[in-house]
C-alpha cells in the first residue's frame, strides 16, 4: 500500500490523492479533500466525462447540486451524476474533510497539479487559463 499524495493548493484547500487512474486501471480515482474555513473553493462546474460520489468524513460541508442545497456531514454521501452543476463551501469555523470517488478514472491528480502551477504565479490566477485547465480535464465552469 502506498501513501496518499498531498497537493496543497495553499488557499485552504488540500487534496490527498489515494488512488489515481494508473492505480485502478482507469476504473476510478479516490481522493480526500480537506477544506479549511474560508477556503478558496472551485467555481460551480459540471463534469463531462465522470460521475463523482462525495462521502463526509469530518465537519459539515455546504453542497449545492443544481438547485438543491444540502449539508454533507460525517457519514453522509451524495452521488453527483456527470452533467449536474455543483459547488461547495465550508461555512463553518471547523476544518471539513470529505472523500471523493470519481468514476471512471479519467480524472487524475494532474488536474490539481496544473491548478497549483497557476496558483504559484503569486497574483490571482488568470481566469481564462484556469478555465482552460478545467476544460482540459473535463470540468466545465458555470457562471453563478
UniProtKB/TrEMBL annotation:
A Pfam cross-reference name: Cupin_2
Protein name: Cupin domain-containing protein
Record organism: Niabella yanshanensis
Domain Cupin type-2 intervals: 33-100
Amino acid at each position: 500500500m502506498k501513501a496518499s499524495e498531498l497537493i496543497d493548493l495553499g488557499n485552504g484547500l488540500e487534496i490527498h490523492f489515494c488512488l489515481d487512474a494508473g492505480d485502478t486501471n482507469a476504473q476510478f480515482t479516490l481522493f480526500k479533500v480537506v477544506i479549511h474555513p474560508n477556503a478558496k473553493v472551485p467555481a460551480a462546474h459540471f463534469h463531462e466525462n465522470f460521475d463523482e460520489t462525495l462521502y463526509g468524513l469530518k465537519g459539515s460541508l455546504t453542497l449545492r447540486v443544481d438547485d438543491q442545497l444540502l449539508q454533507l456531514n460525517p457519514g453522509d454521501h451524495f452521488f453527483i451524476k456527470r452533467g449536474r452543476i455543483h459547488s461547495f463551501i465550508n461555512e463553518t469555523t471547523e476544518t471539513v474533510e470529505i472523500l471523493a470517488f470519481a468514476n471512471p478514472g479519467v480524472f487524475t491528480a494532474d488536474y490539481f497539479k496544473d491548478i497549483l502551477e497557476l496558483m504559484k504565479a503569486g497574483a490571482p490566477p488568470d481566469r481564462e487559463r484556469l478555465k482552460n485547465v478545467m476544460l482540459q480535464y473535463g470540468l466545465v465552469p458555470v457562471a453563478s
